[in-house]
Amino acid sequence: LENLEMARTLVHQAGGELEVRPGQQGPSAFRARLVLPVADQVTVLVIDDNADTLDLLERYLVGSRYRFVGTADPREALVLAEERSPAIIVLDVMLPGIDGWELLGRIRQHPRTCGIPVIVCTILPQEDLAAALGASGLVRKPVTQLAFLSALDQQLERIRTEST
What we know:
Elements: H1 2-13, E1 17-22, E2 30-35, E3 42-47, H2 51-61, E4 66-71, H3 77-84, E5 88-91, H4 100-109, E6 118-122, H5 127-132, E7 137-140, H6 145-162
Parallel strand pairs: 3-4, 3-5, 5-6, 6-7
Antiparallel strand pairs: 1-2
């Protein structure tokens, strides 16, 4: 019991959680659940005016190597990108006030964001246009968690390959 409390304390200090419950195979059996934070999270900036989409994509990233930063206001996008230095940007195309394609152009022209991979996330089948305007990838809505994480993983692998 003392070792268990010490383990729980160490896990808690590391930002994790250790939960222990009695097991079903006798008095000395137990079930443990250990949750530890990801050591090196990668920041992803998601720009989408739909609050439900932002919530969904944020949920998709829970427990992954990716840290979610989101905004529904495309006018905040460049400021957030400068402040948070995301490794990847996910951009919706149909945005209020500023077209997503125009915002992609601004991201590509800005000296602090021009090198950040941008994944266009849209219902529109416009892969060729996205690539021509400088997007690194495109995922179609409705996007599954597997497709979303796969698109992020591809960009992260590309970043790591280019930096070596």
